[in-house]
Amino acid sequence: MFFGCSKLKLSTSQTVNYTTSYRIPKSGTGTYANSALGGMFDNTGGTFTGTPSINTTYYLDVSDNYYLTFKSPETFTLKVYDNTKHWNGTLEYKVTDGNWTTWDGTEISSGSDGILMMRGTGNTVITGSS
Question: How many structural domains is the chain composed of?
Answer without folding.
Answer: 2
